[in-house]
From TrEMBL:
Domain Cytidyltransferase-like: 5-133
Site feature (Transition state stabilizer) residues: H17
Any single GO CC term annotated in Swiss-Prot or TrEMBL for this entry: cytoplasm
UniProt similarity note: Belongs to the bacterial CoaD family.
Documented EC number(s): 2.7.7.3
Function noted in UniProt: Reversibly transfers an adenylyl group from ATP to 4'-phosphopantetheine, yielding dephospho-CoA (dPCoA) and pyrophosphate.
Protein name, per record: Phosphopantetheine adenylyltransferase
Length: 162
C-alpha cells in the first residue's frame, strides 16, 4: 500500500492543484493533502479554512484525505507512513526550487521519494497568488478554482477596501 503526501500552502487550492490530486489519486493507494500551517507567513485563509475548502473539492475522491501540519514535512510524512512526496511542476522555472526542497527532504529522510507530476497545460500559468490578485481587484476566477473557493474569495474581498 503506497501512501503519498501532497504538501502545500493551498492559500487557496486552485484547479491546478485539483488536477494534480485527481491524477495522483489514481496512481497511489492513499493520498494525503497536507496543508502547511506556516508561522512565517500570514495567509489569506486560515489553515482550517484552507483544509475545509480542499475537503469540499475532494469530497468525491474516497482515497484522499486532508490534514493540516506544521514543522518539517518529512516528520509529518513519517508519522503517516508516507513513502512518497508529490509535487506538481508547472514550468521549468519551478524546477530549481522544487529540486532544492526534494533534495533537502531526501537528506533528512532518504526512505521517502519525491515524485513530480507535470501540471496539465491549461493550468500551467496558474497559482494561488495570481488567483488572489484577480479576486482582490474584482476579477472573475470562475474556472480557476473550485466553486466553494470562488465564493469564499468573493466574501473575503467584498469586506476589504481595495
Ligand atoms: O505551496 P508551497 O508554499 O510551495 O509549499 C511549500 C512546502 C509546504 C512544500 C514546503 O514549504 C514545506 O514542506 N514546508 C514545511 C517545512 C519543511 O519541511 N521544510 C524543509 C524542506 S524545504
Amino acid at each position: 500500500m503506497i501512501v503519498a503526501i501532497y504538501p502545500g500552502s493551498f492559500d487557496p487550492i486552485t484547479n491546478g492543484h485539483l488536477d494534480i490530486i485527481d491524477r495522483a489519486r489514481k496512481i497511489f493507494d492513499h493520498l494525503i493533502v497536507a496543508v502547511l500551517q506556516n508561522p512565517n507567513k500570514v495567509p489569506l485563509f486560515s489553515a482550517e479554512e484552507r483544509k475545509r475548502m480542499i475537503e469540499e473539492a475532494v469530497a468525491d475522491f474516497p482515497n484522499v484525505a486532508v490534514e493540516v501540519f506544521d514543522g518539517l514535512l518529512v516528520h509529518f510524512a513519517r508519522s503517516r507512513g508516507c513513502r512518497v512526496i508529490l509535487r506538481g511542476l508547472r514550468a521549468i522555472s519551478d524546477y530549481e526550487y522544487e529540486t532544492q526542497i526534494a533534495l533537502t527532504n531526501r537528506k533528512m529522510a532518504p526512505e521517502i521519494e519525491t515524485i513530480f507530476l507535470p501540471t496539465s497545460t491549461e493550468y500551467s500559468y496558474l497559482n494561488s497568488t495570481v488567483v488572489k490578485e484577480i479576486a482582490r481587484f474584482g476579477g472573475c476566477v470562475r474556472g480557476l478554482v473550485p466553486p466553494g473557493v470562488e465564493r469564499r474569495l468573493r466574501e473575503k474581498f467584498s469586506s476589504v477596501p481595495r
